[in-house]
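Quick one, probably user error.
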């Protein structure tokens, strides 16, 4: 099976970006619906403590996503550069490594969360009113870890060979199954948060089965064959060099969510529930722009591996224009429609009021936040591991943490809400400076990325 060289080498840049990014964006819409579904249907119970429990449990699920991104984004970077350099054999080795690593790490996650459940429930900031609901949710979500990791990892690496539509379909299948099961299990069977967790588990199983079937049909250069599994030959190091910074962003999102929830818990469970709803609304803006950034990464990696500087720069310029337009439209829509969107999640008056206010604060960076994701994906595409790591740590780590502490002490609850937009702006400025400096050095041959051999 040949890769789609047309999209990588000959197709006009604006069209190539749309062909690669639109399925990725649609995939993120699906992820958005998936994230919203549990909160929406749990919200229909009218119980704000169950809504708060789902929000409190989200950092744990983010760790599963982080691992999927570690293997998927790291694998995508290496595979796309390998294909640009003409080394399909190395791409197959990386694919097999990603598959078996997903299974191993997923099983370890499941066992760890079952064993350490009491500690985890305390760490995520549960109260007497929410601890039982959070325990029910996490006990069922834990076994989904291997399937979540496989689904996320392969939705990335399938895109690395130019098959954006096929990558999207697996994500869509898992989400559709989840959405169908949510109202049945949460409301009809009266399972509450446990029903939401079970729907999540089954949905991710369906997505994983799709990707396994795609690989086993043989219509791809990717492989899950044991004979192709390698740790050496720059497989492990190549994936980890880019995957760890990408995953660290999710890990820090998880930790920052725990920190945020703990600060909000000091103001009350209503505030925790309101932030959970507000974050779902803001995901509409963020995830679609993340999808655009993820969609262009294979194009950038291939161009870098092939040494096509002109096409690489054209992709970057056009992508930044696209993401600003997309971000502005989405932000305006969510700002104007905040009351209706928040009201769809919960009918609690206090949660509704806080949710609208929190949403509008979080939307302040919506028009430009996509530029940050473009820069992050471009650094991952060229194998700039250290720089990608620095940006990941800044956004959710060494900028966000002091911001939430300082702004809480100065402005109280409003300061807690503003911590993320402030951290985003600092990180955006930093990413622009780092990208400009690193891009010049890499293309001028002053530094070499973690790279595979060029195949003649």
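Nope, works fine. Designed sequence:
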């Amino acid at each position: 099976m040949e890769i789609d060289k047309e999209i990588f080498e000959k197709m006009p840049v604006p069209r190539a970006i749309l062909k690669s990014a639109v399925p990725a964006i649609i995939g993120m819409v699906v992820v958005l619906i998936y994230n919203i579904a549990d909160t929406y249907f749990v919200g229909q119970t009218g119980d704000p403590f169950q809504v708060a429990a789902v929000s409190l449990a989200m950092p744990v699920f983010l760790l599963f996503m982080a691992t999927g991104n570690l293997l998927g984004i790291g694998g995508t970077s290496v595979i796309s550069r390998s294909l640009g350099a003409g080394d399909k054999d190395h791409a197959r080795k990386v694919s097999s490594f990603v598959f078996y690593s997903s299974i191993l790490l997923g099983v370890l996650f499941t066992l760890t969360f079952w064993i350490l459940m009491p500690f985890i429930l305390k760490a995520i900031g549960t109260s007497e009113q929410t601890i039982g609901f959070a325990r029910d949710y996490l006990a069922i979500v834990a076994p989904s870890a291997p399937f979540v990791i496989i689904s996320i990892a392969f939705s990335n690496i399938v895109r690395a060979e130019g098959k954006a539509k096929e990558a999207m379909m697996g994500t869509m299948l898992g989400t559709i199954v989840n959405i169908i099961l949510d109202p049945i299990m949460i409301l009809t069977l009266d399972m509450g948060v446990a029903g939401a967790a079970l729907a999540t588990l089954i949905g991710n199983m369906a997505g994983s089965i799709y990707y396994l079937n795609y690989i086993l049909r043989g219509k791809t250069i990717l492989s899950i064959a044991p004979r192709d599994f390698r740790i050496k030959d720059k497989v492990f190091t190549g994936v980890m060099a880019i995957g760890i910074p990408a995953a660290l962003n999710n890990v820090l999102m998880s930790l920052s969510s725990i920190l945020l929830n703990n600060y909000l818990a000091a103001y009350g469970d209503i505030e925790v529930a309101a932030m959970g709803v507000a974050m779902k609304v803001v995901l509409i803006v963020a995830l679609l722009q993340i999808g655009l950034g993820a969609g262009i990464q294979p194009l950038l990696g291939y161009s870098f591996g092939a040494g096509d500087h002109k096409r690489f720069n054209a992709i970057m310029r056009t992508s930044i224009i696209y993401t600003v337009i997309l971000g502005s439209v989405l932000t305006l829509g969510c700002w104007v429609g905040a009351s209706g969107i928040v009201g769809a999640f919960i009918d609690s008056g206090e949660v509704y009021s806080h949710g609208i206010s929190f949403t509008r604060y979080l939307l302040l960076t919506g028009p430009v936040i996509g530029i940050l994701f473009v820069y992050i994906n471009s650094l991952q595409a060229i194998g700039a591991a250290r720089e990608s790591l620095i940006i990941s740590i800044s956004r959710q780590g060494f900028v966000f943490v002091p911001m939430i502490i300082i702004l809480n002490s100065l402005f109280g609850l409003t300061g807690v809400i503003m911590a993320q937009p402030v951290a985003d702006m600092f990180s955006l400025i930093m990413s622009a400076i780092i990208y400009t400096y690193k891009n010049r050095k890499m293309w001028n041959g002053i530094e070499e990325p973690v790279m595979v051999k060029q195949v003649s």
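The radius of gyration is 21 Å.
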